[in-house]
Write a structure and sequence with these properties.
This protein is α+β, with helices and mostly antiparallel strands. About 15% of the residues lie in helices and about 45% in strands.
């Protein structure tokens, strides 16, 4: 039976070669393969799909599917015509030829199934006898194992000191082929640099030397053509560094550069801060008369200003016990009366203009009120008109005594008018006086005649 199958395969191969030797025409219009690259999963089926773009009932077809391994060896898997199909006996349990569209299905992928699958197809239409159209396509197939969850290993496993140590991070998986790794620190993708060195495939990351900015959370991502990125658990890298950016601050007084000024009798607090891991130890030192002495330890200093003479220099020293590094910050404390200098300056700048405007407006209103009041109580025109309207005989009298019988009618405000050019006349007519309002160059003096009633004699005195 096996000999008969081999003989039939040989006969079909000879016929195929003879057909090819006849007149052929190469075309790319009659078949279509949707994907020329397939990433298969080991143990799963894979369909090498082919779409025919001509009616099979109007043509005769003849072709083969062959497999070329990565090593270069080539094997004919299937030889077929429209009427019959012959599959190599070595692969017939794992292959299925799909009629009528000449597709090929690999039932269960293995590592040996990787390589290039080549389809060669001859087409002869019934109405074009003797004309054979040749179609060829090659499909590349890879077989991969899905990636398992990656695991990170850090060496050394403990915290390291910056600029004095190197760290190696290794990412590995239990399963997976053609795995590609990526590294992230605090969810930011890392790439090669002067201190970051990756192995081939990026399974290993070497940080040399370690710096402060390398501190953070690391994790790796593993992937291959058949697996999306799988994330490992995070690993913390602790780096000892510092102190950096040492500074002294205070909420009291006035600061100018490295000089703090506080009021006499004021209690001042100073804070010494620096970036460091682990936290620094702090020492406060007083510098006076070319001598220094330690005041206290800790990040906080309390100073009573009445204990100071005028000015004194202080120094804060920060020391990291692990990195064996230290830093210092020096400042001068001056005791002087600040008063409310800053407040006065602020008020001057913010309220001088509103106060000036209010003052001007108030003066203007008061002036207007006084003018109206004076105009209503002391109007010279009304006084003059009340006098000049009297009979002429009364106007000619030079004086009136307080005891005159008509004196009670003469109390009030009088205005004596001096008119230039009129002094030679002994009498002034009422008509001319009535026109005084139109005279612009006259001089006036106002007198207020106050009424005084003599007391009525008592009955006893009359007797």
């Amino acid at each position: 039976m096996e000999a008969t199958g081999r003989t039939a395969l040989y006969v079909y191969s000879v016929l195929f070669i003879l057909t090819v030797s006849t007149t052929t025409e190469v075309s790319s219009d009659f078949i279509h393969i949707p994907s020329l690259v397939h990433h298969g999963i080991e143990g799963k089926p894979l369909l090498l799909s082919v779409e025919t773009r001509f009616p099979l009932a109007d043509a005769e077809i003849q072709g083969t599917w062959s497999h070329t391994r990565p090593s270069g060896s080539r094997t004919t898997l299937v030889t077929f015509t429209k009427q019959a199909t012959i599959t190599d006996m070595m692969y017939r349990n794992n292959l299925r030829f799909e009629k009528p569209n000449v597709s090929l299905t690999i039932k269960k992928l293995g590592q040996d199934d990787e390589g290039d699958y080549h389809l060669s197809l001859n087409i002869e239409f019934h109405n074009k006898t003797g004309l054979v159209i040749k179609e060829e396509r090659t499909v590349h197939v890879t077989v991969d194992v899905p990636v398992s969850t990656p695991v990170i290993e850090k060496n050394p496993s403990y915290a390291v000191v910056e600029d004095k140590a190197n760290v190696t991070l290794t990412c590995s998986v239990e399963r997976g082929t053609r795995v590609v790794f990526q590294w992230l620190r605090d969810n930011i993708l890392l790439g090669p640099s002067d201190r970051f060195h990756f192995s081939r495939g990026k399974a290993t990351l070497l940080i040399s030397p370690v710096r402060k900015e390398d501190k953070g959370t690391y994790h790796c991502v593993a992937s291959n053509p058949v697996s999306p990125g799988r994330h490992s658990r995070s690993v913390e890298l602790n780096v000892y560094y510092g102190p950096y950016n040492l500074e002294v601050n205070s909420g009291q007084g006035l600061r100018t550069g490295e000089v703090f000024t506080i009021n006499p009798g004021e209690l001042a607090f100073f804070e010494c801060q620096a970036d460091s891991n682990p936290p620094n130890s702090y020492v406060w030192i007083s510098k006076s008369s070319n001598s220094t002495h330690v005041i206290t330890e800790g990040p906080r200093l309390e100073v009573l200003s009445y204990r100071l003479a005028q000015a004194e220099e202080y120094l804060c020293r920060a020391f990291n016990n692990v990195t064996q590094k230290q830093d210092e910050a020096q400042f001068t404390l001056v005791v002087a009366s600040l008063g409310t200098g800053k407040e006065k300056h602020t008020q001057e700048g913010s309220s001088v203009f509103p106060l000036a405007a209010i003052t001007v407006c108030s003066l203007f209103i008061i002036g207007c009120m006084l003018l109206v009041f004076l105009r209503r109580t002391c109007h010279p025109k009304r006084v003059l008109m009340s006098i000049y309207n009297r009979p002429l005989s009364e106007q000619k009298k030079p004086h009136r005594s307080v005891g005159h019988e008509d004196a009670t009618e003469d109390f009030g405000i009088y205005e004596f008018v001096s008119i230039p050019g009129k002094m030679e006349s002994a009498q002034v007519s009422c008509r001319s006086l009535a026109r005084l309002e139109s005279v612009q160059d006259m001089h006036t003096t106002i007198y207020d005649v106050i009424r005084h009633d003599p007391e009525t004699p008592s009955h006893s005195l009359l007797e």
